[in-house]
Each structure stands twice: as C-alpha cells, then as structure tokens.
Fold this protein.
Amino acid sequence: MTSLRGAVPFAGERYFRLSTNALVRYQDAAGETLLDAMAALEQSPGDTRRIRRMVWAALSHEGLTEEAAGDLMDEIGQTEAARLLGEAIRAAFPQAGAPGRMPEKPGNGAGRKKRIP
C-alpha cells in the first residue's frame, strides 16, 4: 500500500497515479491534455488507444511501455482498468467535479464554498 497522494492501489504494491509528471508524459505522448482526452472519450467511449495511453500514464511511474499497459488491461480486465483509471482521475482532479469540466484556477473563487441551487 502506498501513501502517495492520489494513488489508487491495486494488486498489492501497484497503483494508478496521475501525478503532474504522469500528466506531462501523457501530453507529450498523445499531443493532448488528459482533460482533452476525457472530453474526447465522452464522444467516443470505445477509443481503446486513448484509454490504453491514459492507463499507461497512470502507471508510467513503473516504467511500463504502452503495450505493457495494454497487457495489464487484458490481465485485470477492461472494467477494472476503467474503474481504477476513473478513481485516479478523480484523485488527480478532485475540484473538477465531473469528467470534462476544467479544474478551477486559483484566484477565481477556488476554495470558497459555493451555493448549489
């Protein structure tokens, strides 16, 4: 079990984590931000290449290749991989509330409680 902020443990000592470095690795490899990928998946939820790359980014601290991330997805199952990825996204962007919504920027009211109608 890891005590790293935003880490989503599975299979003993392994974990999914979308750290700042993982987000940059994703953006360098994909040419899009993870938030852009999340929005694109709303339009095309079966985009396996994009999902595999997101899983790879969440596991990139292990030094896996994208192909190895795909093998891991096959091993644990698509449903479990999606669940772990979703938890890692929520841990990385807790202020976003819902997939596809941009996190608030400091100075625009972030941190203040908002009334929900």
About this structure: DSSP finds five helices and two strands in the chain. The longest strand covers residues 8-10.
